[in-house]
């Protein structure tokens, strides 16, 4: 039986081909993306307590109860994931009082790679976008270091412009390390599918049908899982599916790996997942995933996606309609919240949702873009010189604020200010926290209910002419006056300058981070995930790119999914900050002392400290003439 015909529809076909009427409980499970039962990944704690559920329920019912929401003790993650590895050393870490398991990376572990990749002769890296070049080169270098003869081969679509790029990086047709996409898929034992998420959604059947039986599919995102689940499909039975999701854009994954040659352990953290372990033909998927992550140079890898059990009974009743537009539309906000949030938390692993990380990434990118647009406009309208306004917004966040958070945490930013500065920080923090949370919450739920996935797939199809309508590829985002000012500021910026530490800007930015932390925490995510996705990824991977050459250089070095997400959500942050936060500051609205005291006492600060100690301090700065970025961004003006 071919892999493609081995699809296991998790929802029985009905008149709409895939969907059947769904009960709320069923829908909640379907809103999660993964389903698996595992022998080696053990859910130790599978349900949130009813008290935290009640808290969550209240939290969703409007802005007034939102204030109570942050006063509540942190929700425990819904699932604590344990795993077994026969190759690497598993360690327990305690983050904000919660135990998690991780595997530390480092070059000293490369000699274990042949063991982790036992049985694999060829790793096919499909795609050469942001992750492809980084992952392929890191894998190749790490395997060479380990003296392994496993071949890393790039597979690209016919006529791809990326052939030349891959050749320039040392891959070639002559030595069998570069070839056609389909030939590479069918000849590889481990297939890393690193084409854009929208292309994965459009080509998955062909990919599956070309894979060797018993081979392993590697993803760096849960998007394809979400797409399949939205159609009631699952992966073929005769392959294993694993994920390693680096918490940073491809160029950072490569850049910090190269730094790791000097500083053992330098790199970008990653999460890993093993999907449907019962399909892991010979039980080696966990070690392959960990080997893949260690070979990428991840300082630490934490377990992420696993749904405890595939509850087919819950899948028994489903909706024969569009779950978001038809079913959810008549619900009240509170019902929707209970429905999405509580059921997801109680029936799915935390990471079923979080694996839609590029949408989190889109938020990280979009939010910081929206913040600086709105603050630059405010500062200049209030008479600040344009160059200074750029420094006090973009340069401040991407320079000194990011560096301080990366090395000393968020509280240190606050503690750096004078009494006057602290007051300004507090006003900005208090006014911005809930407006930021409003958008973060909306985005999270758009991801959870599948609309964001659908939106990305449709956007990808609009990149090309069709239906008699023109093509709409992504447009430029750094051509406005503000970003031209940025070019001027950078042209005269002294080497290594990190910009001013501006208290108002810092207050808005830290409020955004804390609001995101709170949303992910309330949604039951683990601290490893929360910290990597809300804090470390921004300050170690993304912001240094904006510091080097502006917003497009940061956003457009990321995945297509993230680039779309950023373009969609940035204006929303700009809008809500301008319409609500800044208006509130201008009205001298009282500072929400509860919010501030929660910020000072939040256990996340200690947890960030633990994560910081798990990785070496690295130079996160990006040179203006960086040559490890997407080709089209190498020559553009800065
Ligand atoms: N970028 C990040 O920061 C990041 C971080 C973590 C995880 N991820 C995940 O990693 C995966 C890869 O993302 P990415 O950012 O590296 O890639 P991307 O920039 O989104 O996609 C670029 C690659 O997709 C290929 N592609 C596009 N349409 C195709 C089609 N119809 N058929 C075949 N190939 C096609 C392109 O081919 P050509 O070379 O021929 O143009 C190019 O190689 C995604 O799942 C993403 O979510 C990304």
Features:
638 residues; binds NADP nicotinamide-adenine-dinucleotide phosphate; disordered N terminus; alpha/beta; ten-stranded mixed beta sheet; Rossmann fold; two-stranded antiparallel ribbon; 27 helices; globular; N-(1-d-carboxylethyl)-l-norvaline Dehydrogenase, domain 2
Short description:
The chain has 638 residues and is an alpha/beta fold.
Largest sheet: 10 strands, mixed
CATH architecture of the domain at 365-466 and 473-599: Orthogonal Bundle
The CATH class assignment of the domain at 365-466 and 473-599 is: Mainly Alpha
First and last CA, distance: 53 Å
Mean pLDDT: 80
Q: What's the helical proportion of residues?
A: 40-55%
What structural class do helix, strand and pairing data support? alpha/beta
- Tally of contiguous helical segments: 27
CA radius of gyration: 23 Å
Strand order of the largest sheet: 3-4-12-11-10-9-8-5-6-7
Let me know the number of strands: 12
Task: Indicate the low-confidence ranges by residue numbers.
Answer: 1-78, 306-359
Strand content: 5-15%
CATH topology of the domain at 365-466 and 473-599: N-(1-d-carboxylethyl)-l-norvaline Dehydrogenase, domain 2
């Amino acid at each position: 039986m071919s892999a493609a015909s081995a699809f296991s529809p998790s929802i029985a076909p009905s008149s709409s081909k895939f969907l059947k009427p769904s009960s709320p409980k069923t829908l909640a499970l379907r809103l999660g993306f993964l389903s698996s039962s595992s022998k080696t990944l053990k859910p130790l704690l599978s349900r949130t307590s009813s008290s935290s559920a009640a808290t969550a329920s209240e939290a969703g019912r409007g802005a007034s109860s939102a204030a109570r929401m942050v006063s509540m003790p942190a929700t425990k993650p819904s699932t604590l994931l344990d795993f077994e590895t026969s190759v690497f050393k598993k360690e327990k870490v305690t983050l904000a009082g919660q135990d998690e398991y991780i595997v530390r990376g480092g070059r000293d572990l490369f000699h274990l790679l042949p063991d982790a990749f036992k049985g694999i002769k060829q790793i096919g890296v499909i795609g050469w976008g942001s992750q492809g070049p980084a992952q392929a080169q890191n894998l190749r270098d790490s395997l060479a270091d380990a003296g392994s003869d496993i071949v890393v081969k790039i597979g690209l679509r016919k006529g791809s412009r990326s052939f030349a790029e891959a050749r320039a990086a040392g891959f070639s047709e002559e030595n069998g390390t570069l070839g056609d996409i389909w030939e590479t898929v069918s000849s590889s034992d481990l297939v890393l599918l690193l084409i854009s998420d929208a292309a994965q959604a459009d080509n998955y059947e062909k990919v599956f049908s070309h894979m060797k039986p018993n081979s392993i599919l590697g993803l760096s995102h849960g998007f394809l899982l979400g797409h399949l689940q939205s159609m009631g499909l699952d992966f073929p039975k005769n392959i294993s599916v694993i994920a390693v999701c680096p918490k940073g854009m491809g160029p950072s994954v490569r850049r910090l790996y190269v730094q790791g040659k000097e500083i053992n352990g330098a790199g970008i953290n990653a999460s890993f997942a093993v999907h449907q372990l019962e399909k892991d033909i010979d039980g080696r998927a966990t070690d392959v995933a960990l080997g893949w992550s260690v070979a990428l140079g991840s300082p630490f890898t934490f377990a992420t996606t696993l749904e405890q059990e595939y509850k087919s009974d819950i899948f028994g009743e489903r909706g024969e309609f569009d779950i978001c537009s038809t079913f959810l539309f008549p619900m009240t906000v509170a019902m929707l919240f209970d429905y999405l949030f509580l059921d997801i938390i109680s029936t799915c692993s935390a990471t079923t949702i979080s694996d839609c990380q590029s949408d989190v990434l889109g938020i990280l990118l979009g939010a910081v873009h929206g913040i600086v647009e709105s603050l630059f406009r405010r500062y200049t309208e209030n008479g600040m010189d344009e160059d200074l306004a750029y420094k006090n917004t973009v340069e401040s966040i991407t320079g000194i604020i990011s560096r301080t958070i990366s090395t000393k945490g968020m509280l240190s930013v606050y503690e750096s200010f004078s009494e006057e500065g602290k007051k300004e920080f507090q006003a900005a923090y208090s006014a911005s926290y809930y407006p930021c949370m409003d958008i973060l919450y909306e985005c999270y739920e758009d991801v959870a209910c599948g609309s964001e996935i659908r939106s990305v797939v449709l956007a990808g199809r609009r990149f090309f002419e069709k239906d008699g309508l023109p093509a709409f590829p992504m447009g430029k985002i750094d051509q406005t006056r503000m970003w031209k000012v940025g070019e001027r500021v950078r042209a005269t910026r002294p080497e290594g300058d990190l910009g001013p530490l501006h208290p108002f800007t810092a207050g808005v930015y830290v409020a955004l981070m804390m609001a995101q932390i709170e949303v992910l925490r309330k949604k039951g995510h683990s601290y490893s995930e929360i910290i990597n996705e809300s804090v470390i990824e921004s300050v170690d991977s993304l912001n240094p790119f904006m510091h080097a050459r502006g917003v497009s250089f940061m956003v457009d070095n990321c995945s297509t999914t993230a680039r779309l997400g950023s373009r969609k959500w940035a204006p929303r942050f700009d809008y809500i900050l301008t319409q609500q936060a800044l208006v509130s500051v201008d009205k001298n609205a009282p500072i929400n002392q509860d919010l501030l005291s929660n910020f000072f006492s939040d256990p996340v600060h200690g947890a960030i400290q633990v994560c910081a100690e798990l990785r070496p301090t690295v130079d996160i700065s990006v040179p203006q003439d960086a040559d490890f970025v997407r080709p089209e961004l190498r020559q553009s003006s800065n």
